[in-house]
Specification:
single chain, 375 residues, Quinone Oxidoreductase, Chain A, domain 1, seven-stranded mixed β-sheet, 27% helix, binds zinc ion
Length: 375
Amino acid sequence: MHIKAAVVRESGGPFLIEDLELEAPLEGEVLVRILACGICHTDLIIRDQFYPTPLPVVLGHEGAGIVEAVGLGVKSVKPGDHVLMSFSACGSCPSCVEGAKAYCWHHMQMNFSGMRYSGKAWDVPAPLLKRLPSGGVERINGAFFNQSALATHAIATEDNVVVVDADLDLKMLAPLGCGFQTGAGAILNTLRPEVGSSLVITGAGNVGLAAVMAAAISHCHPIIVIDRVPERLALARELGATHVFDSSDSDPLPAVLALCPGGVRYGLDTTGHPAVLQSIFQMLQARGICGLIGGSKPGAEVSLDMTHLLFGRTVRGILQGDSQPKKFLPQLVKLFRDGLFPIDRLIRHYRLDEIENAIADMKSGATIKPVLLME
Ligand SMILES: [Zn+2]
Ligand SMILES: [Zn+2]
């Protein structure tokens, strides 16, 4: 079928809106008419080729839409269902067997290879083609997070879509499938702070602010947020932060230790910057735990004070908020309905052809979470 999609053809961009052909769903796959797709930092680092996902490629991994068709063998999803899309996992490796799907041993292959995996073979080309004026056909890479949802339609799998109630506004919920579940899940699924626990979060982007909301739900205190953009810090306060520090003014470490003598119980770094992780580690109390959810370039290193580490402290990497999307996304939807997880306050909508403006606004901090509308 004929679709429009944002295609990245060279490292660093731009995203070009092109007419493509989308193939029909194979066994285990579903065809989704995309209504909205969030833009996540991971789309941009793939555009910039931090990981070797082949170009040209259609990115986008926070898609939401309505199922139009299903392939053979699909049982739990049917045409007309409203779905959120999330990451993909093989279902049979040691991590998947234990229910830790975000740590699938084939995570890179499943989500970043540019090829599709529908349960049998690893090397099935993505379902995207471009018809050339010469009469030839160009294969476009895709199946990004088994969706490539920066497009009017996408092929996902039965496994990586989550059916939600049809009365919900998919334009607001699209980013649940990556950014928001990553921030909220790090608190609610991984750190699971006890009531009254002290917590510091570095970075008040969409992931950090989702974590702030989850920390408020968990009754953490104090909830400390560190960022360099005053508007983001003000929003963090409105969403539940009890204390905010602007790290462009001064080193927040002494201020945090003055507020929490002995250090904080929990830390969460959403920036992926080695110096920031190092700083948050220094803020931990004995037996304190720091989660790392910010992505960095492969090979980035951080040095930690080993004596400080020896006192029972933990640094833990967290992917996708330890989420099992079919279980966790409905929980987040319920919190959203109840007004406890007001993600709509972070979202600004753009048309698909405004994607470069959306990315510029995300970079400047003018927009926390851009969501593109496909129609
Ligand atoms: Zn697996
Ligand atoms: Zn993402």
